[in-house]
Amino acid sequence: FFLQSTVKEEMKFEKYFEKILYVSFSPDSKTIVPSSFDGAIQLWDIYPCREIQNMIGHLSGVEIVQYSPDCQMIVSSSTDKTIALWDIKSCARMKQLIVHPDVAKRVQFFPNGQFIVSCSFDKTVCLWDMKSGKKYSN
């Protein structure tokens, strides 16, 4: 039994990246944002295939990135042990959270966009209020 694949490469993003760790699609499916070891967060327009924003602020590699549900912000975690919240239009870092004693391996917006959850190899999960930037405690 042979299954023929119908998947084909649609486009190739031609730029040097130092080890891509994660890629996130925007909720509106118009842009992508990869995370890489170089510490920069680059927003790419899918059609046409081009870089449109570059957000710099982490001191080392970016582990993961994710868009907010309304496509207005990006959250990122870095090996510099910080989580950053970015405004997409201005490319400005809105908040920086020093979260875990170890690297936050995953960060994610809640579906309503009001909270961020993070987890780390330090065996903790943290919940953050987006407006205040404060961590909820148990």
Automatic annotation (TrEMBL):
WD repeats lie at residues 13-46, 55-96, 97-138. Keywords: Repeat, WD repeat. Coiled coil: none annotated. Pfam families: WD40. SMART domains: WD40. It comes from the Eukaryota. One of its GO terms (cellular component) is transferase complex. This is WD-40 repeat protein.
